[in-house]
Amino acid sequence: MNYLRPYPKWKACVVLLLAGAVIFYFGITNLRRNRQTLRWPVTEGLIRSANLKMSPWRRFYYADIVYDYQVAHVAYTNSRITFGNFWSVNRNHDHALSVLQRYAQGTKVTVFYDPNDPQNAVLETGVTDQTWTPLIFGGLFILWGTLPIVWFSQTRKNGGQQPQSSQRGGGY
Fold first, then answer.
1. Which of 103, 85, 98 is nearest to 46 (CA)?
2. Model pTM greater than 0.85?
3. Do residues 154 and 163 lie in contact, with contact meaning Cβ atoms separated by under 8 Å?
4. What is the pLDDT of residues 71-87, one digit of tens each?
5. What pLDDT sits at residue 124?
6. 43 three-class SS
7. Concatenated DSSP letters for 71-120?
């Protein structure tokens, strides 16, 4: 790593790499969980409350859904719609309202629960477009953190010259 010492931005690259790894791990975890939900048993639930909320920094709207359900005569309460609820948080007020309409207070719903931990439940199963968001962003952060380090290390090894391509000659 000595050849990285003079590179002034290597700390930023390491931060990008670490942030990307954490985000990517979060994405992998959500992907795995969302796939598992496809095999979960179901029970009937009831929407206890459905409210439109605004994020503390007042930039995003989201639907705050709370539902009750029972498994083996034990009552549970949950608020998870799906793993990685990114789709329920949106700048568009109408989008959050559409989620509220689907899960209006007093509506009976199908609840999918983890048979090993019934407290772990969702209203929607499977992999959605939003499941891929942290994987894409995490991968991009990892790439953005890696490329400058690789490029700079190659430049240093070549005595300050930019890395040469492996092709020689005309290159048609």
1. 103
2. no
3. yes
4. 999 999 999 988 766 54
5. 87
6. strand
7. ETTEEEEE--SSSSGGGGEES-HHHHHHHHHHT-TT-EEEEEEETTEEEE
